[in-house]
Every structure is written in C-alpha cells, then in structure tokens.
Amino acid sequence: MPKIIVLPHEDLCPEGAVLDAETGETVLDVALKNGIGIEHACEKSCACTTCHVIVREGFDSLDESDELEDDMLDKAWGLEPESRLGCQAKVTDEDLVIEIPKYTLNHAAEEH
C-alpha cells in the first residue's frame, strides 16, 4: 500500500504524518480522511488553487497534469516545478512526500 508522507506544516500538520493511501485516490482525499484540513474551496473541481501541494518525492510517478490544472497552478502562491493540485494528483503505487505550502490564495474567501 503506498504512503503519503506529509512534511510538517505549522497549522495543518505540525508533526508531519505518514498516511496510508489507496492507488487512484487523490492526495487531497487521503489528507482529508486523515484529519489534515487542506483547504479545497472549489470542492475538488479544479477551479481554484487552495489545495496546492508540492510533491518533494515521487512526483514522476504521478500522471501528468492537464491544461486546466496547469492554468490553475499558474495562479498558485509559491508555485514550484513539482507543484500539483491535491484534488487532481492521484496516488499510484509509489510513496509520495508532500509539502503543504504556508499560504494559499482563496479568492472566494477574500471577497467576503
């Protein structure tokens, strides 16, 4: 069973975590079912960047991002070459090490 290793994040996961994942699950779904409250303002529809994660290890095991995800990622804070949207990155049979960026851009929340 593949694992997702979440690097420490001061608010969402201060100690870091090692999560069991099923092949085909998204990084976001695995995090949420394990109590790591990564924001997902668009309800996992690839319409925002709030679930942006950086894949520090295992990036090449993921399916390539599509044009819609790439367009969304262009708007993400702290974009890196290994950035993905957690709602789009599906676990394969390889372990992943992810970092949750310190900040996200939530245009819906900022308008209130």
UniProtKB/TrEMBL annotation:
PROSITE patterns: 2FE2S_FER_2, ADX. Residues 2-104 form the 2Fe-2S ferredoxin-type domain. One of its GO terms (cellular component) is cytosol. The keyword Nucleotide-binding does not apply. GO terms for molecular function: 2 iron, 2 sulfur cluster binding; electron transfer activity; metal ion binding. InterPro entries: 2Fe-2S_ferredoxin-like_sf, 2Fe-2S_ferredoxin-type, Adrenodoxin-like, Adrenodoxin_Fe-S_BS, Beta-grasp_dom_sf, Fdx_isc. Transmembrane segments: none annotated. Keywords: 2Fe-2S, Electron transport, Iron, Iron-sulfur, Metal-binding, Transport. Its cofactor is [2Fe-2S] cluster. GO terms for biological process: P450-containing electron transport chain. Ferredoxin are iron-sulfur proteins that transfer electrons in a wide variety of metabolic reactions. Although the function of this ferredoxin is unknown it is probable that it has a role as a cellular electron transfer protein. Involved in the in vivo assembly of the Fe-S clusters in a wide variety of iron-sulfur proteins. Belongs to the adrenodoxin/putidaredoxin family. This is 2Fe-2S ferredoxin. It comes from Vibrio ruber (strain DSM 16370 / JCM 11486 / BCRC 17186 / CECT 7878 / LMG 23124 / VR1).
